[in-house]
UniProtKB/TrEMBL annotation:
Alphabetic keyword roster: Membrane, Transmembrane, Transmembrane helix
TM helices/strands, residue ranges: 46-64, 70-92, 119-143, 163-192, 204-224, 230-250
Keyword Transmembrane helix: yes
Domain of life: Bacteria
Descriptive protein name: Integral membrane protein
Organism: Thiorhodococcus drewsii AZ1
InterPro entries: DUF2189 (IPR018692)
Length: 258
């Protein structure tokens, strides 16, 4: 495991921070560090994992009840994850500084950072809104209806979907996923740690992705693989995997941002 220096958490005064280069295999180190951080606060970690699992079950239940809002529910869940993980970032930050992990202190710090966090939420919300509107248009073209049924969604996985529309749908979804990952991979940890504005946080995250894209793609694949494992267990696995990924994300921020 590579060594790590704890850096100042004060707001930046001299412009955007520098970004460190990483090796392609370093995401494995972040996961190992995440396990160690988890072990130091298991109760706190499992609480956040349980909350995320409950959010997953709730989203699935709403999707079956109101399938025409499926994309909105599932996209909202993907956006909720990073913000639930914010408490995990604060817990890792507290451990680094030798403090005891405290939910109350976590909430206090989130409140202090509320302005920049809210602006970043707005940024992701605009991307989400554009995706929901575009996907609704694609579904309307395919099914000649503004409110597809659950059978229509399941038809996507059984081959009853126009290949051209499916290609647009998957291509745009992939582009959206890459955009969200590249802009937010380090943004929320950085806002929490240094109280920088969203533009600085997004710019730093983009530069980290551009400089370290091989390692960042490995990191993205690791997130997808572990998240997929959690989904296959009926989201029960997310109780442990969600905090693990949250802590590993914090360590990735600490490793790349000077």
């Amino acid at each position: 495991m590579r060594s790590q220096t704890v850096r100042s958490s004060r707001p930046l005064l001299d412009g955007a921070p520098s970004v460190h280069h990483i090796e392609i295999d370093e995401p494995l180190d972040w996961l190992k560090q995440g396990v160690a951080t988890f072990a130091q606060a298991p109760g706190h970690s499992l609480l956040y994992g349980t909350l995320f699992a409950l959010a997953c079950w709730g989203s699935i239940g709403l999707t079956w009840s109101m399938p025409w809002f499926a994309l909105a529910f599932l996209t909202g869940l993907m956006l909720l994850g990073p913000f639930l993980a914010a408490g995990l970032y604060v817990a890792a930050r507290q451990q680094e500084s030798g403090q005891s992990v405290s939910i109350r202190d976590s909430l206090n710090l989130l409140w202090l950072r509320r302005t920049n966090l809210s602006l970043f939420v707005l940024f992701l919300g605009l991307i989400t809104a554009a995706w929901i509107r575009l996907s609704a248009l694609l579904f309307a073209i395919q099914f000649d209806a503004l409110s597809p049924s659950i059978d229509s969604y399941l038809g996507m996985f059984s081959g009853h979907f126009d290949p051209l529309i499916a290609g647009f749908f998957l291509g745009i979804g992939l582009l959206l996923a890459i955009t969200v990952f590249a802009t937010s991979a380090l943004a929320i940890p950085m806002i929490l740690d240094r109280d920088v504005d969203p533009i600085t946080a997004i710019n730093t995250s983009l530069r980290a992705f551009a400089i370290n894209w091989p390692g960042m793609l490995v990191w993205a694949a690791s997130i997808v693989t572990l998240s997929g494992t959690g989904i296959l267990t009926g989201f029960i696995g997310m109780v442990a995997l969600f905090p693990l990924l949250g802590y590993a994300t914090w360590h990735s921020y600490r490793r790349m941002v000077a």
